[in-house]
Amino acid sequence: MARESTLRFGAQTDEMTSLLRIVNMVRTGEAATRPEIGRVTGLGRGVVTQRVDHAIEMGYLADGEFGPSSGGRAPRTLRFRGDAGRIVVCALGALHIHVGVALLDGDVVDQEHSPWDIARGPAETLDKALSMIDEVLARTPDVPVWGIGVGLPGPVDFDSGRPVAPPIMPGWNGFDVRRRFEQRYDAPVWVDNDVNLLTFGERARRDDDRLDLIYCKIGSGIGAGLLSHGRIHRGVNGAAGDIGHVRVRDSDALCRCGKVGCLEAVAGGWAMIRDALAEIEAGATGVLTTAVADGEELTPELISIAAENGDALAIRLVQRSARVVGESIAALVNMFNPSVIVIGGAMAGAGELLLAEVRQRVYELSLPLATRDLTIAQSVNDRREPLRGGVEMVREQLFEVTFPRWFSDGRPSVVAIRGALEAVA
Ligand SMILES: [Zn+2]
Predict the structure, then answer these.
(1) Where is the signal peptide (predicted)?
(2) What is the spatial distance between Cα 152 and Cα 167, in angstroms, rounded to a whole number?
(3) Could you report the per-residue pLDDT of 304-356, keeping only the tens digit for each?
(4) Which CATH architecture is the domain 2-80 placed in?
């Protein structure tokens, strides 16, 4: 089937190419009327009319309102059929599952959230995630699923959709996450690292497709997403941006990855909890000591809130972490020269206290040219960000990467996107 559609596509290359282009122009807002399409593409009026009719017939475009008139008859605007299909996102965290459904134009229209320990393993965790997705999909059962995005809190091989030796996900190494979703929903699935999803979310929010940005997530662990001229940089195996396990100076702290002196073993949320407990043991007093005495479990959130409220121990911990993180980010700034650094994750709740320290280290240690146009900002810290980011990732895969493979079928399919052989293998 994939072969047949390739042949059909091959036989009408010129027509298909301009059709694809026109659908994407309307989808992205580059052109909204037939005369505009003619101006941008240089195609004649008759050809444009024919192509647009074809795109409407295939279900990609529809006629919209009448646009502003430029003297003569007002041209009718076109709109992309964002309601023709929907995109499902499943964002797994270390301690929660968040699922959402969006229209093809990117708006998240429904969601479900549940606390969950990812260490329960892939079988049980995905059963739970799939039942949550079923529940959300059942609320609007008539719209087909066009694509699914999955985010995992660990390194992911993007091509195969499998996690690779994730430190906090026992039992997940090499698990075929994609297949579970593909079999259930018969739709193409892309699996990515959770920080990459957050990075896509920033790109969508800033609406800048040429952004050079580093998203640094400081939660229990530490990771980064890299946006190079608007494109996610995943590296050859999907390991790019995994700065949590880069070695820092003067540390012999044992990391949960098994190595010694990693950034997150010094500055990650779990390391701060370790240090807080040691200081409390040694007699430190304050909010955190009281919390522990009351039987509360220390979390990165708790420490960041205590720091923001002025607790001396929490402030010390946050500042120490921020200084070390700032050093690692400074090295990235020299190498990568981004225009924006976004600090997110549970520790970002400490706000200006954390940012000020990171800024100071970055400006101290980076080259002047690399920081001339640099902004360091806090993330919006909205729980829905991974969902928005997942939708953005799937939209990119559907309409910018794989569109020619399934366009002539009218909607995406696993077979058209992955190839018939791989789909049945
Ligand atoms: Zn490590």
Answers:
(1) none
(2) 12
(3) 999 999 999 999 999 999 999 999 999 999 999 999 999 999 888 888 999 99
(4) Orthogonal Bundle (1.10)
